[in-house]
Amino acid sequence: MADNELILTDVTKRFGGLTAVDALSMKVSSGQIYGVIGPNGAGKTTVFNCITGIYKSEEGSVRWRGEEIRGMTPYQIVARGIVRTFQTIRLFSQMSVAENIMSGRHIKSSQGWWHGICPTPGSRRDEKENWMKVGELLEFFNLEEFAATPTMSLPYGLQRRVEMARALAVDPTLLILDEPAAGLNDNETAELVDTIFSIRQKGITVLLIEHDMELVMKVTDYLTVLNFGKKIAEGTPEEIQKNPLVIEAYLGSEDEDDE
Amino acid sequence: MKKLSLVSLLVFLVVMAILPHLLDTRWQTVAVTFLVFSVVALSQDIVLGKAGMFNMGQAMFFGMGAYVTAILNSHFGWPIVATVPVAIVAPVLLGIVLAAPIVHLRGDYLLVVTIGFNIVFVQVLINNLGGVTGGPNGIFGIDPLRLFGFELSSQVAIYYYAFAVLLLTLAIMINLDKSKVGRALHYLREDPLAAESIGINTRLYKIFAFGLGAGIAGLAGSVFATQYSAVSPEAFEFIQSVLFFSIVLVGGSSIPGVLIGVFVMFVLPEIFREFSTWRFFVFGFAMILTMILRPRGIWPATFGKIPKFLIKEPKNGG
Fold first, then answer.
1. Which of A22, A205, B27, B317 has the fewest CB atoms within 10 Å, i.e. is most exposed?
2. Cα separation, A30 vs B235, whole angstroms
3. Which residue range or ranges hold the ABC transporter domain (chain A) (predicted)?
4. What pTM did the predictor assign?
5. Range of the domain at B80
6. Could you give the ipTM of this predicted complex?
Protein backbone atom coordinates (compact mmCIF):
# COMPACT_ATOMS: atom_id res chain seq x y z
CA MET A 1 0.00 0.00 0.00
CA ALA A 2 2.79 2.37 0.91
CA ASP A 3 3.93 2.27 -2.67
CA ASN A 4 0.73 3.74 -4.10
CA GLU A 5 2.24 7.16 -4.44
CA LEU A 6 1.81 9.67 -7.19
CA ILE A 7 4.79 11.98 -7.42
CA LEU A 8 4.91 14.93 -9.80
CA THR A 9 8.30 16.56 -10.24
CA ASP A 10 8.72 19.87 -12.07
CA VAL A 11 5.84 19.18 -14.43
CA THR A 12 5.63 21.91 -17.05
CA LYS A 13 3.00 22.15 -19.76
CA ARG A 14 3.00 24.93 -22.35
CA PHE A 15 0.41 25.87 -24.94
CA GLY A 16 2.27 28.02 -27.44
CA GLY A 17 3.57 30.96 -25.45
CA LEU A 18 1.39 30.25 -22.43
CA THR A 19 2.82 28.19 -19.59
CA ALA A 20 -0.29 26.54 -18.20
CA VAL A 21 1.56 24.52 -15.58
CA ASP A 22 4.92 25.78 -14.39
CA ALA A 23 7.37 23.40 -12.70
CA LEU A 24 4.76 21.85 -10.46
CA SER A 25 5.84 19.30 -7.90
CA MET A 26 3.49 17.48 -5.60
CA LYS A 27 3.15 14.15 -3.86
CA VAL A 28 -0.08 12.25 -3.30
CA SER A 29 0.33 9.51 -0.71
CA SER A 30 -1.63 6.32 -0.44
CA GLY A 31 -5.02 6.66 1.22
CA GLN A 32 -5.10 10.46 1.09
CA ILE A 33 -7.87 12.71 -0.07
CA TYR A 34 -5.77 15.29 -1.82
CA GLY A 35 -7.16 18.57 -3.10
CA VAL A 36 -5.90 20.87 -5.83
CA ILE A 37 -7.42 24.34 -5.66
CA GLY A 38 -6.84 27.65 -7.34
CA PRO A 39 -8.67 30.42 -9.18
CA ASN A 40 -10.16 29.83 -12.63
CA GLY A 41 -7.48 29.33 -15.25
CA ALA A 42 -4.86 28.40 -12.67
CA GLY A 43 -4.05 25.22 -14.59
CA LYS A 44 -5.73 22.67 -12.34
CA THR A 45 -7.45 20.69 -15.04
CA THR A 46 -4.28 20.84 -17.15
CA VAL A 47 -2.42 19.13 -14.30
CA PHE A 48 -5.06 16.40 -14.28
CA ASN A 49 -4.82 16.05 -18.03
CA CYS A 50 -1.05 15.64 -17.70
CA ILE A 51 -1.49 12.93 -15.06
CA THR A 52 -4.14 11.00 -16.99
CA GLY A 53 -2.32 11.08 -20.30
CA ILE A 54 -4.64 13.38 -22.22
CA TYR A 55 -1.74 15.85 -22.47
CA LYS A 56 1.94 15.07 -22.30
CA SER A 57 3.88 17.57 -20.22
CA GLU A 58 6.95 19.01 -21.94
CA GLU A 59 9.13 18.69 -18.89
CA GLY A 60 9.20 16.96 -15.57
CA SER A 61 8.14 13.54 -14.50
CA VAL A 62 4.94 11.90 -13.33
CA ARG A 63 5.68 8.79 -11.36
CA TRP A 64 3.06 6.37 -10.15
CA ARG A 65 4.18 3.51 -7.92
CA GLY A 66 7.70 4.33 -8.95
CA GLU A 67 6.90 4.00 -12.68
CA GLU A 68 7.16 6.90 -15.10
CA ILE A 69 3.70 7.39 -16.63
CA ARG A 70 4.38 10.65 -18.45
CA GLY A 71 3.84 10.06 -22.15
CA MET A 72 1.61 7.03 -21.72
CA THR A 73 -1.81 7.00 -23.38
CA PRO A 74 -4.93 7.43 -21.22
CA TYR A 75 -5.90 3.76 -21.50
CA GLN A 76 -2.44 2.62 -20.43
CA ILE A 77 -2.70 4.84 -17.37
CA VAL A 78 -6.18 3.48 -16.56
CA ALA A 79 -4.71 -0.02 -16.74
CA ARG A 80 -2.36 1.06 -13.93
CA GLY A 81 -5.25 1.95 -11.66
CA ILE A 82 -5.65 5.69 -12.21
CA VAL A 83 -9.08 6.77 -13.41
CA ARG A 84 -10.77 10.13 -13.67
CA THR A 85 -14.04 11.99 -14.04
CA PHE A 86 -14.51 15.17 -16.05
CA GLN A 87 -15.42 18.71 -15.09
CA THR A 88 -17.91 18.77 -17.94
CA ILE A 89 -19.57 15.39 -17.54
CA ARG A 90 -18.61 13.04 -20.36
CA LEU A 91 -21.00 10.13 -20.36
CA PHE A 92 -22.00 7.96 -23.29
CA SER A 93 -25.20 9.94 -23.48
CA GLN A 94 -27.41 7.74 -25.66
CA MET A 95 -26.59 4.66 -23.66
CA SER A 96 -28.19 3.49 -20.45
CA VAL A 97 -26.80 4.04 -16.96
CA ALA A 98 -25.90 0.35 -16.64
CA GLU A 99 -24.07 0.35 -20.00
CA ASN A 100 -22.16 3.46 -18.97
CA ILE A 101 -20.99 1.81 -15.77
CA MET A 102 -20.19 -1.35 -17.71
CA SER A 103 -17.66 0.63 -19.74
CA GLY A 104 -15.56 0.83 -16.57
CA ARG A 105 -15.43 -2.97 -16.48
CA HIS A 106 -13.81 -2.99 -19.91
CA ILE A 107 -10.25 -3.44 -18.70
CA LYS A 108 -11.30 -5.95 -16.04
CA SER A 109 -13.09 -8.16 -18.54
CA SER A 110 -11.20 -11.24 -19.68
CA GLN A 111 -12.88 -11.33 -23.10
CA GLY A 112 -10.80 -11.25 -26.24
CA TRP A 113 -11.85 -9.68 -29.53
CA TRP A 114 -12.81 -13.08 -30.93
CA HIS A 115 -15.50 -13.43 -28.27
CA GLY A 116 -17.36 -10.62 -30.00
CA ILE A 117 -17.69 -12.90 -33.04
CA CYS A 118 -18.10 -16.24 -31.32
CA PRO A 119 -18.89 -16.34 -27.60
CA THR A 120 -17.68 -19.18 -25.39
CA PRO A 121 -19.00 -20.38 -22.01
CA GLY A 122 -16.04 -18.59 -20.43
CA SER A 123 -16.85 -15.27 -22.08
CA ARG A 124 -20.53 -15.60 -21.10
CA ARG A 125 -19.51 -16.15 -17.49
CA ASP A 126 -17.17 -13.15 -17.64
CA GLU A 127 -20.02 -11.07 -19.09
CA LYS A 128 -22.34 -12.14 -16.27
CA GLU A 129 -19.75 -11.43 -13.57
CA ASN A 130 -19.13 -7.93 -14.87
CA TRP A 131 -22.84 -7.16 -15.05
CA MET A 132 -23.12 -8.35 -11.42
CA LYS A 133 -20.41 -5.88 -10.51
CA VAL A 134 -22.39 -3.17 -12.34
CA GLY A 135 -25.37 -4.19 -10.22
CA GLU A 136 -23.34 -3.67 -7.02
CA LEU A 137 -22.29 -0.21 -8.16
CA LEU A 138 -25.86 0.72 -9.09
CA GLU A 139 -26.78 -0.18 -5.53
CA PHE A 140 -23.82 1.68 -3.97
CA PHE A 141 -24.73 4.86 -5.82
CA ASN A 142 -28.45 4.37 -5.40
CA LEU A 143 -29.03 4.32 -9.15
CA GLU A 144 -30.88 1.01 -9.42
CA GLU A 145 -34.15 2.43 -10.72
CA PHE A 146 -32.32 4.22 -13.54
CA ALA A 147 -30.37 1.17 -14.77
CA ALA A 148 -32.03 1.16 -18.20
CA THR A 149 -32.45 4.94 -18.55
CA PRO A 150 -30.33 6.76 -21.16
CA THR A 151 -27.99 9.06 -19.27
CA MET A 152 -28.88 12.11 -21.36
CA SER A 153 -32.37 12.14 -19.86
CA LEU A 154 -31.08 12.20 -16.26
CA PRO A 155 -30.76 15.36 -14.15
CA TYR A 156 -27.29 16.77 -13.68
CA GLY A 157 -26.76 15.51 -10.14
CA LEU A 158 -27.52 11.93 -11.16
CA GLN A 159 -25.20 12.19 -14.17
CA ARG A 160 -22.39 13.10 -11.79
CA ARG A 161 -23.15 9.99 -9.78
CA VAL A 162 -23.17 7.82 -12.89
CA GLU A 163 -19.80 9.20 -13.91
CA MET A 164 -18.36 8.41 -10.51
CA ALA A 165 -19.86 4.92 -10.59
CA ARG A 166 -18.31 4.37 -14.01
CA ALA A 167 -14.90 5.43 -12.71
CA LEU A 168 -15.22 3.14 -9.68
CA ALA A 169 -16.14 0.21 -11.92
CA VAL A 170 -12.49 0.14 -12.99
CA ASP A 171 -11.55 -0.78 -9.39
CA PRO A 172 -9.08 2.08 -9.32
CA THR A 173 -6.27 2.68 -6.85
CA LEU A 174 -6.30 6.41 -7.48
CA LEU A 175 -9.53 8.21 -8.34
CA ILE A 176 -9.23 11.67 -9.85
CA LEU A 177 -12.31 13.88 -9.56
CA ASP A 178 -12.44 17.10 -11.57
CA GLU A 179 -14.88 19.43 -9.78
CA PRO A 180 -17.24 16.71 -8.57
CA ALA A 181 -19.54 19.22 -6.85
CA ALA A 182 -19.97 21.55 -9.81
CA GLY A 183 -23.66 22.03 -10.50
CA LEU A 184 -24.81 20.09 -7.44
CA ASN A 185 -27.32 21.45 -4.93
CA ASP A 186 -26.65 21.43 -1.17
CA ASN A 187 -28.25 18.04 -0.59
CA GLU A 188 -26.33 16.45 -3.41
CA THR A 189 -23.09 18.01 -2.20
CA ALA A 190 -23.67 16.55 1.26
CA GLU A 191 -24.22 13.14 -0.34
CA LEU A 192 -21.04 13.63 -2.33
CA VAL A 193 -19.04 14.19 0.85
CA ASP A 194 -20.34 10.88 2.22
CA THR A 195 -19.56 9.16 -1.05
CA ILE A 196 -15.99 10.47 -1.13
CA PHE A 197 -15.42 9.26 2.42
CA SER A 198 -16.84 5.83 1.67
CA ILE A 199 -14.66 5.61 -1.44
CA ARG A 200 -11.63 6.28 0.70
CA GLN A 201 -12.80 3.56 3.04
CA LYS A 202 -12.49 1.12 0.17
CA GLY A 203 -8.78 1.92 0.19
CA ILE A 204 -8.90 4.23 -2.84
CA THR A 205 -6.78 7.36 -2.89
CA VAL A 206 -8.73 10.41 -4.07
CA LEU A 207 -7.30 13.43 -5.86
CA LEU A 208 -9.76 16.21 -6.52
CA ILE A 209 -10.13 19.69 -7.94
CA GLU A 210 -12.91 21.69 -6.38
CA HIS A 211 -14.23 25.23 -6.23
CA ASP A 212 -16.57 24.64 -3.31
CA MET A 213 -14.29 25.72 -0.44
CA GLU A 214 -16.56 24.33 2.22
CA LEU A 215 -16.38 20.90 0.61
CA VAL A 216 -12.62 21.09 0.15
CA MET A 217 -12.02 22.06 3.76
CA LYS A 218 -14.32 19.28 4.93
CA VAL A 219 -13.01 16.34 2.92
CA THR A 220 -9.35 16.87 2.06
CA ASP A 221 -6.33 15.87 4.10
CA TYR A 222 -3.86 17.88 2.15
CA LEU A 223 -4.01 20.67 -0.42
CA THR A 224 -1.96 22.24 -3.16
CA VAL A 225 -2.89 25.74 -4.25
CA LEU A 226 -2.17 26.83 -7.82
CA ASN A 227 -2.17 30.28 -9.32
CA PHE A 228 -1.12 31.02 -12.90
CA GLY A 229 0.20 27.47 -13.18
CA LYS A 230 2.52 27.79 -10.22
CA LYS A 231 2.21 26.26 -6.81
CA ILE A 232 1.82 29.06 -4.28
CA ALA A 233 1.16 26.96 -1.21
CA GLU A 234 0.60 23.49 0.11
CA GLY A 235 -0.47 22.07 3.43
CA THR A 236 -3.41 20.86 5.45
CA PRO A 237 -6.71 22.71 5.04
CA GLU A 238 -6.09 24.57 8.31
CA GLU A 239 -2.67 25.76 7.19
CA ILE A 240 -4.00 26.83 3.81
CA GLN A 241 -6.83 28.84 5.33
CA LYS A 242 -4.28 30.87 7.28
CA ASN A 243 -1.80 31.33 4.46
CA PRO A 244 -1.74 35.03 3.45
CA LEU A 245 -0.64 34.26 -0.11
CA VAL A 246 -3.60 31.99 -0.63
CA ILE A 247 -6.00 34.47 0.90
CA GLU A 248 -4.74 37.12 -1.45
CA ALA A 249 -4.73 35.01 -4.58
CA TYR A 250 -7.79 32.96 -4.09
CA LEU A 251 -9.91 33.33 -1.02
CA GLY A 252 -9.64 37.11 -1.17
CA SER A 253 -11.33 37.24 -4.53
CA GLU A 254 -13.87 34.64 -3.55
CA ASP A 255 -16.32 37.23 -2.15
CA GLU A 256 -16.57 39.07 -5.44
CA ASP A 257 -17.06 35.84 -7.40
CA ASP A 258 -19.61 34.47 -5.03
CA GLU A 259 -22.63 36.44 -6.19
CA MET B 1 -40.13 -3.90 -27.80
CA LYS B 2 -37.68 -6.72 -27.29
CA LYS B 3 -40.42 -9.28 -27.95
CA LEU B 4 -41.56 -7.43 -31.04
CA SER B 5 -38.10 -7.47 -32.61
CA LEU B 6 -37.68 -11.15 -31.75
CA VAL B 7 -41.02 -12.03 -33.37
CA SER B 8 -40.30 -9.89 -36.43
CA LEU B 9 -36.88 -11.54 -36.76
CA LEU B 10 -38.48 -15.00 -36.66
CA VAL B 11 -41.14 -14.03 -39.21
CA PHE B 12 -38.44 -12.56 -41.42
CA LEU B 13 -36.34 -15.75 -41.21
CA VAL B 14 -39.30 -18.04 -41.99
CA VAL B 15 -40.38 -15.91 -44.94
CA MET B 16 -36.82 -15.77 -46.25
CA ALA B 17 -36.44 -19.54 -45.86
CA ILE B 18 -39.40 -20.37 -48.12
CA LEU B 19 -39.16 -17.35 -50.40
CA PRO B 20 -37.27 -18.77 -53.40
CA HIS B 21 -39.98 -21.37 -53.99
CA LEU B 22 -42.56 -18.61 -54.48
CA LEU B 23 -40.57 -16.63 -57.03
CA ASP B 24 -39.65 -16.97 -60.68
CA THR B 25 -36.02 -16.91 -61.79
CA ARG B 26 -35.81 -13.17 -62.27
CA TRP B 27 -37.11 -12.47 -58.77
CA GLN B 28 -34.90 -15.18 -57.34
CA THR B 29 -31.93 -13.23 -58.67
CA VAL B 30 -33.28 -10.08 -57.05
CA ALA B 31 -33.71 -11.99 -53.79
CA VAL B 32 -30.09 -13.21 -53.86
CA THR B 33 -28.95 -9.66 -54.53
CA PHE B 34 -30.98 -8.55 -51.54
CA LEU B 35 -29.24 -11.15 -49.34
CA VAL B 36 -25.74 -10.33 -50.57
CA PHE B 37 -26.20 -6.57 -50.30
CA SER B 38 -27.74 -7.01 -46.85
CA VAL B 39 -24.54 -8.70 -45.70
CA VAL B 40 -22.43 -5.86 -47.10
CA ALA B 41 -24.72 -3.23 -45.54
CA LEU B 42 -24.49 -4.99 -42.17
CA SER B 43 -20.70 -5.00 -42.45
CA GLN B 44 -20.87 -1.28 -43.18
CA ASP B 45 -23.04 -0.91 -40.07
CA ILE B 46 -20.21 -2.30 -37.93
CA VAL B 47 -17.86 0.43 -39.15
CA LEU B 48 -20.29 3.33 -39.61
CA GLY B 49 -23.20 2.57 -37.31
CA LYS B 50 -21.48 0.97 -34.33
CA ALA B 51 -18.00 2.51 -34.38
CA GLY B 52 -19.18 5.76 -36.00
CA MET B 53 -16.40 5.95 -38.59
CA PHE B 54 -17.31 7.59 -41.88
CA ASN B 55 -16.13 4.87 -44.17
CA MET B 56 -17.10 5.53 -47.81
CA GLY B 57 -15.15 2.61 -49.25
CA GLN B 58 -17.01 -0.53 -48.24
CA ALA B 59 -17.54 -1.52 -51.90
CA MET B 60 -13.76 -1.94 -52.12
CA PHE B 61 -13.74 -4.78 -49.57
CA PHE B 62 -16.84 -6.26 -51.22
CA GLY B 63 -15.05 -6.12 -54.57
CA MET B 64 -11.86 -7.55 -53.16
CA GLY B 65 -13.71 -10.63 -51.91
CA ALA B 66 -15.34 -11.04 -55.31
CA TYR B 67 -12.07 -10.64 -57.23
CA VAL B 68 -10.15 -12.99 -54.93
CA THR B 69 -12.67 -15.74 -55.65
CA ALA B 70 -12.70 -14.91 -59.36
CA ILE B 71 -8.92 -14.73 -59.78
CA LEU B 72 -8.08 -17.80 -57.71
CA ASN B 73 -10.74 -19.81 -59.54
CA SER B 74 -10.21 -18.70 -63.12
CA HIS B 75 -6.44 -18.13 -63.16
CA PHE B 76 -5.26 -20.69 -60.65
CA GLY B 77 -8.01 -23.28 -60.87
CA TRP B 78 -8.87 -23.31 -57.18
CA PRO B 79 -12.28 -24.77 -56.37
CA ILE B 80 -14.70 -22.05 -55.18
CA VAL B 81 -14.91 -23.47 -51.66
CA ALA B 82 -11.16 -23.08 -51.22
CA THR B 83 -11.26 -19.45 -52.37
CA VAL B 84 -13.79 -18.44 -49.69
CA PRO B 85 -11.37 -18.30 -46.73
CA VAL B 86 -8.95 -16.23 -48.81
CA ALA B 87 -11.82 -13.95 -49.89
CA ILE B 88 -12.38 -13.26 -46.18
CA VAL B 89 -8.80 -13.04 -44.96
CA ALA B 90 -7.42 -10.86 -47.79
CA PRO B 91 -9.93 -8.01 -47.22
CA VAL B 92 -9.38 -8.30 -43.46
CA LEU B 93 -5.64 -7.79 -43.93
CA LEU B 94 -6.18 -4.97 -46.42
CA GLY B 95 -8.70 -3.42 -44.01
CA ILE B 96 -6.23 -3.52 -41.14
CA VAL B 97 -3.31 -2.21 -43.20
CA LEU B 98 -5.37 0.64 -44.67
CA ALA B 99 -7.18 1.50 -41.43
CA ALA B 100 -4.14 1.57 -39.14
CA PRO B 101 -2.73 4.87 -40.40
CA ILE B 102 -6.10 6.62 -40.92
CA VAL B 103 -8.45 5.72 -38.06
CA HIS B 104 -7.33 8.68 -35.98
CA LEU B 105 -8.71 11.02 -38.66
CA ARG B 106 -11.87 12.91 -37.88
CA GLY B 107 -15.09 11.92 -39.62
CA ASP B 108 -15.00 14.05 -42.75
CA TYR B 109 -11.27 13.50 -43.38
CA LEU B 110 -11.66 9.76 -43.00
CA LEU B 111 -14.52 9.92 -45.50
CA VAL B 112 -12.34 11.54 -48.14
CA VAL B 113 -9.48 9.08 -47.59
CA THR B 114 -11.76 6.05 -47.93
CA ILE B 115 -13.27 7.49 -51.14
CA GLY B 116 -9.69 7.73 -52.39
CA PHE B 117 -9.02 4.08 -51.54
CA ASN B 118 -12.16 3.00 -53.38
CA ILE B 119 -11.22 4.97 -56.51
CA VAL B 120 -7.68 3.61 -56.52
CA PHE B 121 -9.03 0.08 -56.12
CA VAL B 122 -11.34 0.39 -59.13
CA GLN B 123 -8.53 1.93 -61.21
CA VAL B 124 -6.30 -1.03 -60.33
CA LEU B 125 -9.01 -3.40 -61.57
CA ILE B 126 -9.63 -1.44 -64.80
CA ASN B 127 -5.92 -1.17 -65.59
CA ASN B 128 -5.51 -4.91 -65.18
CA LEU B 129 -2.69 -4.73 -62.69
CA GLY B 130 -0.57 -7.86 -62.75
CA GLY B 131 -2.64 -9.11 -65.67
CA VAL B 132 -5.08 -10.99 -63.46
CA THR B 133 -8.07 -8.65 -63.02
CA GLY B 134 -9.27 -8.82 -66.62
CA GLY B 135 -9.36 -5.04 -67.10
CA PRO B 136 -12.61 -3.13 -67.68
CA ASN B 137 -14.44 -6.30 -68.72
CA GLY B 138 -13.61 -8.19 -65.59
CA ILE B 139 -13.50 -11.97 -65.32
CA PHE B 140 -16.05 -14.37 -66.78
CA GLY B 141 -16.78 -18.05 -66.44
CA ILE B 142 -16.29 -18.53 -62.74
CA ASP B 143 -17.15 -22.08 -61.66
CA PRO B 144 -20.26 -22.77 -59.61
CA LEU B 145 -19.87 -23.66 -55.98
CA ARG B 146 -19.33 -27.39 -55.43
CA LEU B 147 -20.04 -28.64 -51.96
CA PHE B 148 -20.04 -32.31 -50.83
CA GLY B 149 -20.26 -33.45 -54.43
CA PHE B 150 -23.26 -31.22 -55.25
CA GLU B 151 -23.04 -28.46 -57.80
CA LEU B 152 -24.86 -25.42 -56.46
CA SER B 153 -25.52 -23.65 -59.72
CA SER B 154 -29.30 -23.00 -59.67
CA GLN B 155 -30.53 -19.68 -58.35
CA VAL B 156 -32.33 -21.49 -55.53
CA ALA B 157 -29.10 -23.18 -54.40
CA ILE B 158 -27.22 -19.88 -54.52
CA TYR B 159 -30.08 -18.29 -52.64
CA TYR B 160 -29.62 -20.70 -49.75
CA TYR B 161 -25.86 -20.23 -49.85
CA ALA B 162 -26.34 -16.45 -49.57
CA PHE B 163 -29.00 -16.96 -46.91
CA ALA B 164 -26.56 -19.01 -44.83
CA VAL B 165 -24.01 -16.20 -45.14
CA LEU B 166 -26.63 -13.68 -44.01
CA LEU B 167 -27.54 -15.86 -41.01
CA LEU B 168 -23.86 -16.07 -40.07
CA THR B 169 -23.56 -12.30 -40.33
CA LEU B 170 -26.68 -11.78 -38.21
CA ALA B 171 -25.26 -14.14 -35.57
CA ILE B 172 -22.04 -12.12 -35.48
CA MET B 173 -23.97 -8.85 -35.20
CA ILE B 174 -26.02 -10.20 -32.30
CA ASN B 175 -22.98 -11.65 -30.52
CA LEU B 176 -21.10 -8.42 -30.98
CA ASP B 177 -23.75 -6.47 -29.10
CA LYS B 178 -23.42 -8.78 -26.12
CA SER B 179 -19.66 -8.60 -25.86
CA LYS B 180 -16.88 -6.39 -24.62
CA VAL B 181 -15.66 -5.47 -28.12
CA GLY B 182 -19.15 -4.60 -29.36
CA ARG B 183 -19.75 -2.27 -26.45
CA ALA B 184 -16.28 -0.75 -26.86
CA LEU B 185 -17.30 0.28 -30.40
CA HIS B 186 -20.44 1.99 -29.06
CA TYR B 187 -18.45 3.77 -26.37
CA LEU B 188 -15.82 5.12 -28.73
CA ARG B 189 -18.50 6.35 -31.12
CA GLU B 190 -20.34 8.18 -28.36
CA ASP B 191 -17.27 9.87 -26.85
CA PRO B 192 -13.75 8.82 -27.87
CA LEU B 193 -12.03 10.80 -25.11
CA ALA B 194 -14.26 9.39 -22.38
CA ALA B 195 -13.76 5.90 -23.80
CA GLU B 196 -9.99 6.32 -23.79
CA SER B 197 -10.14 7.72 -20.24
CA ILE B 198 -12.01 4.68 -18.98
CA GLY B 199 -9.38 2.32 -20.35
CA ILE B 200 -10.41 1.56 -23.93
CA ASN B 201 -7.70 1.45 -26.56
CA THR B 202 -9.84 3.26 -29.13
CA ARG B 203 -7.35 2.91 -31.98
CA LEU B 204 -7.23 -0.86 -31.62
CA TYR B 205 -11.01 -1.19 -31.62
CA LYS B 206 -11.42 1.11 -34.60
CA ILE B 207 -9.02 -1.07 -36.57
CA PHE B 208 -10.89 -4.14 -35.35
CA ALA B 209 -14.15 -2.67 -36.69
CA PHE B 210 -12.54 -2.03 -40.08
CA GLY B 211 -11.07 -5.54 -40.19
CA LEU B 212 -14.30 -7.29 -39.21
CA GLY B 213 -16.36 -5.16 -41.61
CA ALA B 214 -13.91 -5.91 -44.42
CA GLY B 215 -13.98 -9.65 -43.76
CA ILE B 216 -17.78 -9.85 -43.85
CA ALA B 217 -17.94 -7.70 -46.99
CA GLY B 218 -15.29 -9.93 -48.58
CA LEU B 219 -17.38 -13.02 -47.88
CA ALA B 220 -20.39 -11.29 -49.48
CA GLY B 221 -18.18 -10.47 -52.47
CA SER B 222 -17.27 -14.11 -52.90
CA VAL B 223 -20.97 -15.06 -52.95
CA PHE B 224 -21.63 -12.25 -55.44
CA ALA B 225 -18.93 -13.58 -57.80
CA THR B 226 -20.38 -17.08 -57.55
CA GLN B 227 -23.92 -15.83 -58.22
CA TYR B 228 -23.10 -14.13 -61.51
CA SER B 229 -20.12 -16.38 -62.31
CA ALA B 230 -18.52 -13.11 -63.37
CA VAL B 231 -17.04 -9.97 -61.84
CA SER B 232 -16.42 -6.54 -63.32
CA PRO B 233 -15.10 -3.30 -61.88
CA GLU B 234 -18.26 -1.18 -62.17
CA ALA B 235 -20.05 -3.27 -59.52
CA PHE B 236 -17.57 -1.98 -56.93
CA GLU B 237 -17.39 1.67 -57.85
CA PHE B 238 -17.41 4.39 -55.27
CA ILE B 239 -21.12 5.01 -55.96
CA GLN B 240 -21.85 1.56 -54.50
CA SER B 241 -20.07 2.60 -51.31
CA VAL B 242 -22.29 5.68 -51.22
CA LEU B 243 -25.34 3.40 -51.40
CA PHE B 244 -24.15 1.23 -48.51
CA PHE B 245 -23.34 4.35 -46.53
CA SER B 246 -26.82 5.77 -47.18
CA ILE B 247 -28.52 2.48 -46.31
CA VAL B 248 -27.03 2.53 -42.81
CA LEU B 249 -27.97 6.18 -42.31
CA VAL B 250 -31.46 5.94 -43.79
CA GLY B 251 -32.24 2.55 -42.25
CA GLY B 252 -30.74 3.36 -38.89
CA SER B 253 -27.99 1.43 -37.21
CA SER B 254 -29.99 -1.68 -36.34
CA ILE B 255 -30.51 -5.04 -38.02
CA PRO B 256 -34.13 -4.35 -39.08
CA GLY B 257 -33.15 -0.83 -40.12
CA VAL B 258 -30.34 -2.02 -42.36
CA LEU B 259 -32.50 -4.75 -43.91
CA ILE B 260 -35.29 -2.25 -44.60
CA GLY B 261 -32.68 0.07 -46.08
CA VAL B 262 -31.41 -2.61 -48.45
CA PHE B 263 -34.97 -3.48 -49.44
CA VAL B 264 -35.79 0.15 -50.19
CA MET B 265 -32.58 0.79 -52.13
CA PHE B 266 -32.23 -2.43 -54.12
CA VAL B 267 -35.53 -4.29 -54.20
CA LEU B 268 -38.09 -1.48 -54.54
CA PRO B 269 -36.34 -0.12 -57.67
CA GLU B 270 -36.78 -3.58 -59.22
CA ILE B 271 -40.47 -3.68 -58.30
CA PHE B 272 -41.06 -0.24 -59.81
CA ARG B 273 -38.96 -0.95 -62.84
CA GLU B 274 -41.69 0.12 -65.28
CA PHE B 275 -41.52 3.65 -63.98
CA SER B 276 -37.91 3.62 -65.14
CA THR B 277 -36.16 6.91 -64.41
CA TRP B 278 -38.93 8.25 -62.20
CA ARG B 279 -38.15 5.74 -59.46
CA PHE B 280 -34.77 7.32 -58.69
CA PHE B 281 -36.41 10.71 -58.57
CA VAL B 282 -38.83 9.37 -55.97
CA PHE B 283 -36.12 7.56 -54.04
CA GLY B 284 -33.98 10.65 -53.85
CA PHE B 285 -36.85 12.53 -52.27
CA ALA B 286 -37.68 9.59 -50.00
CA MET B 287 -34.11 9.64 -48.70
CA ILE B 288 -34.20 13.37 -48.09
CA LEU B 289 -37.55 13.16 -46.31
CA THR B 290 -36.41 10.25 -44.13
CA MET B 291 -33.35 12.11 -42.97
CA ILE B 292 -35.39 15.23 -42.18
CA LEU B 293 -38.25 13.46 -40.43
CA ARG B 294 -36.26 10.66 -38.82
CA PRO B 295 -32.67 11.89 -38.51
CA ARG B 296 -31.60 8.74 -36.69
CA GLY B 297 -32.96 6.47 -39.40
CA ILE B 298 -36.15 4.53 -40.09
CA TRP B 299 -35.39 2.01 -37.33
CA PRO B 300 -32.74 3.56 -35.11
CA ALA B 301 -30.36 1.64 -32.89
CA THR B 302 -31.69 0.93 -29.44
CA PHE B 303 -29.55 0.85 -26.36
CA GLY B 304 -30.27 -0.44 -22.90
CA LYS B 305 -29.45 -4.04 -23.83
CA ILE B 306 -28.74 -4.87 -20.24
CA PRO B 307 -29.45 -8.08 -18.35
CA LYS B 308 -32.94 -8.36 -16.87
CA PHE B 309 -31.77 -8.71 -13.28
CA LEU B 310 -30.47 -5.13 -13.35
CA ILE B 311 -33.84 -3.65 -14.25
CA LYS B 312 -35.74 -2.75 -11.11
CA GLU B 313 -39.18 -1.19 -10.89
CA PRO B 314 -39.04 2.50 -9.99
CA LYS B 315 -39.55 3.03 -6.29
CA ASN B 316 -42.93 4.47 -5.35
CA GLY B 317 -43.25 7.79 -3.61
CA GLY B 318 -40.47 10.22 -2.83
1. B317
2. 63
3. 6-253
4. 0.90
5. 28-237
6. 0.89
